[in-house]
Design a protein that fits this description.
Helix content: over 70%
Largest sheet: none
Number of helices: 3
Number of domains: 1
Shape: elongated
Strand content: under 5%
Order of helices and strands: HHH
Length: about 55
């Protein structure tokens, strides 16, 4: 959750400064991928358990 909030806020602040539209999209996609990779790494390191494993 902290990573999501941090990178979202960081992304917002950077997006306000860039003028080029394509660069904004590239940065935004990069930050979304980074947040998703953080989430997947937490599951891979077995710090968190996916919901479907808990239900079965």
């Amino acid at each position: 959750m902290v990573g999501l909030i941090f990178f979202s806020m960081f992304s917002y602040l950077i997006m306000k400064e860039f003028k080029g539209n394509s660069l904004k999209w590239a940065m935004e996609i990069g930050f979304v991928c980074l947040v998703l990779l953080i989430g997947v790494s937490r599951i891979a390191m077995k710090v968190h358990v996916p919901t479907w494993q808990v239900l079965h």
